[in-house]
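Dear colleague,

Following up on Tuesday's group meeting, I ran the structure prediction for the two-component complex that the binding team flagged. I've pasted the input sequences exactly as they went in, so you can double-check that nothing got truncated or mislabelled along the way. The structure tokens for the whole assembly follow below. Feel free to forward this to whoever is handling the docking comparison.

Inputs:
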Amino acid sequence: MKVSKSAKAFRLLIAGAFAASVTVLPISGGFAAGETLGAKCTNEGESTGTFSTSLVCAKNSAGRLVWTKVKLSASNLKPRAALRAPRGSIEFWHWRAEDKAVFDQIISDFEDLNPGAKVTQVISNSSDYTATALQKARTNKKAALFTTFRGSQFNQAATAGFYTDLTNEQFTKRNVIKSMMGAGQYEGKQLGIPLQSLFNDPIYNIEIFKKEGWKLPKKFSEWISYCKTAKAAGYTPMAWMGAFRPQAGQIINSALMNTASTDAKLTEQILAIDSGKDAITVKWFKDMAEKYADLRDAGCFPDNPKGVTEAAGNTLFATGKSPILPTGSFSMGGIIKLEPKMSGNMGITGMNWTEDVNARYTGITNNTFILGVNKNAGRTEQKIARAFLSYLLTGPVATLYANGTKQHVTVLDVSYTDENLRNTASIMSERLVLAPRFIFLNQGVRDILEDALIAIVGGESVDKALTDGAALIKQKLG
Amino acid sequence: MSKTETGARKGASPRPKNKLARANDRTLLLMTLPALLLYSIFYLYPTISNLRYSLSKWDGFGVPEFVGLRNFRKLVTDDDIFNKVLSNNIEFTFLVVIFQTALSLIFAIFLLKNSRGSTFLRTLYFFPTIISSVSVAMVWQFLYEPNLGPINVFLNSIGLDFLALNWLGSETITLRAIAFTQVWFHTGQMMVVYIAGLQQIPAELYEAAEVDGASRWQQFKSVTWPMALPTTAVVMAYTTIQSFRAFDLVYAMTQGGPNNSSSILVTLIYLTAFNEFRFGYAATQSIFLVIFILALTALQRRILRTRY
């Protein structure tokens, strides 16, 4: 058949348009709400999503920031489909009761795809999980899939040889964001897959900030000003919950993040305290503690801060009495349960404790809920656990998990359809550091130093709080 | 008496059991075995293991490392947190034992008669006992909240703001606030024990006292109190042990904070073992706890000069 020149040109045009659409659409499909293709790349590390085709703002060879299609996974290959599970049953041990319904749905789908395979959730609350559940799971052949927190708990389980090595699994190489896997690595091996990507940064009430015409503070003096302004307007500037150490201690992440010039130095100085080489009266820590006193003096914290429970802190924020909840993205689900109207009304922002708006880091992230396959489980059980893990690490399943539980995840090809996840995705444009609070490996030491900081917020002098704390740490490590 | 009979008595050897009796003995012995086995598994073995762990450094995962008496030495000579917690526990126990015993005795005396009103009030006072301790803790945590809690809101509204304290956030008040909750929680239970004890006192004693012209107070001092001493001993011993075991209440309300000011020995042991993963040292602390409770109970028995 003879084709005219104009028809040929038309066909070429159609082919070109099709090629362009299949190339560009998946990229824009991975964008967070409000982002557009061609938006200026100004924040190094900003990412348009977790798709394998997503763009990341990175420096080119000339040192200029440009949108770059980088390899998010450890390989150039597409994410892999889930493994098939043999017949049998396993237990999946974790501490997130709030995720049970979503996991039930995921497990049901997995069991439909793998006839004869059965997964049962065994859930304890987080303190019981640390206390006893992990011990029980260790000697339970059915407890094939289990989770740990980043830091001391993961390290302890890794040291005890609790994990099977997942380094060479295809899902490790192809299905997850490589840069978020550090929390599950031990002595060069990928022993666990951190599923969640959390942001331990303050959440703010979008409506109040809009109504009052406030701008988000970008440096420490702006935080002080914000506190004074918010207090004068009748708000509790930050719904900080001093009676509950795990949440009261979240802002220590932001406080720590720029206390050293390099990551190595930051780790070194934290471990020096952790091991007793340095006391918490050391200059850098004292300087940081002084800033707690500055925030206290500016009226940032609630009245009677040491007596504010987690429930009271959440209530202050959910009822609009406080515009900022200084915990993290993981609190959003609870806030929405408390006050459904807060859905879509929460943003997240970094807390820069320096005067430099271009400080090394402006926000915190954490990769946790580390999934591991129990080395002490039976062989068949381990196979089922790997299959279920690989299933969790596929895009559609991780999308279901992320939107259902309001958690960002470390899995590739995930779409955040939940408005709260989209609103808080903006934090990804901050310069994020992996939560330094978890560099402390000795829980006893961390508790004492956090108690000292809580005491400062409660009105104790910096010198006394740190001296008392230092003495207790010395005894603890002695 | 024949020689044979005398010889048999001198030898004093028991009469040999017949086959049936021996079989009965064996059966009885066998019947205790399941209980003995359970006791050995769930009490004896953990107790012996605890002794072993107390002499070791162990993180709960790896192999325990034998350290001799180092944990005991550290506990006695170089652990300010332990000392503080021990002193908290003594104060907590003292407050709870005194107030709980006194209040339950007072309530029991007033509600001794089986009238309809008394029965209603007994039920009302006993009611907290049937609530789970964590629920009690949550309710009181809410009541004690310093800024939004009903107690302070009420005190502020009637102008008594100087009494609106930081109930669970002050290092000087928190322990007492929890002790009050513990007393509220268990007074009804002890009141029932007292009522049972007081109902055993013969009515003739009161009649005789009345004939002698004894006042109400004299009747209490000379009849009720001495006759109620065995019950008091039981109530005090039980309350003491109960206050040492108030883990759920303390942990759910404050986790021992702020700054260990409300921590008691059981919460400290738990945190040492399961938060810090120092199982060996926690085992040492628990041995101290057992010895301490034994000593305290013996002291109470001595003071009350009674056997129960």
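Chain B has two domains: 17-54, 70-304.

Cheers,
M.
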